[in-house]
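Hi R.,

Here are the chain sequences for the assembly we discussed:
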Amino acid sequence: AQSVAQPEDQVNVAEGNPLTVKCTYSVSGNPYLFWYVQYPNRGLQFLLKYITGDNLVKGSYGFEAEFNKSQTSFHLKKPSALVSDSALYFCAVRPSGSARQLTFGSGTQLTVLP
Amino acid sequence: SQTIHQWPATLVQPVGSPLSLECTVEGTSNPNLYWYRQAAGRGLQLLFYSVGIGQISSEVPQNLSASRPQDRQFILSSKKLLLSDSGFYLCAWSVRPLIRSNEKLFFGSGTQLSVL
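And here is the predicted structure of the full complex:
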């Protein structure tokens, strides 16, 4: 069975500084990796995905994530954080070929301080 | 454009009472439909998955059930709620078939269920 670990429950970063939200995974075979974001009082939204190809994936709102197969990681990054980036971020993984087996991490609360 | 509606937004129910949460999708046909639960401090847990009318797959044994009476309607139910059923419930849909170019879920706004 696959699993996702988000080792940090809370990440605080100053506005304008780079941010990283960590994610490591375990899955059989090739992984499909996702980041979702949950803004306050809003639903969960898709941010970006890695299916295949370039290890650096660019997504919405200036976010990007780097797939590292040897470290089984898919960390979310942004060069310059905004206060409006404050939200709950979820990493998810599933093995290729099975839609139902999408496994989410426990989430990381990102707070960007003005 | 596609939209997903989920209601109610909040619900407080006594232990032993029944439950019915409804989710509808507009602007698409033949979607995959999902029910997730988000417990405090834990990740999203897939509860049910449906690829078509009347086709329900249960991912974990539990006190809940799901039904899909229409193509774009997905209902989460319980005959008798338990305290442990409290949580944040999210409905989601995805394009079917889930091919590589359509790899994303679209979530509803969620229902916060408190069982007292």
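The CA atoms of residues 54 and 110 of chain B lie 23 Å apart. The two ends of chain B are 38 Å apart (CA to CA).

Let me know if anything looks off.

Best,
T.
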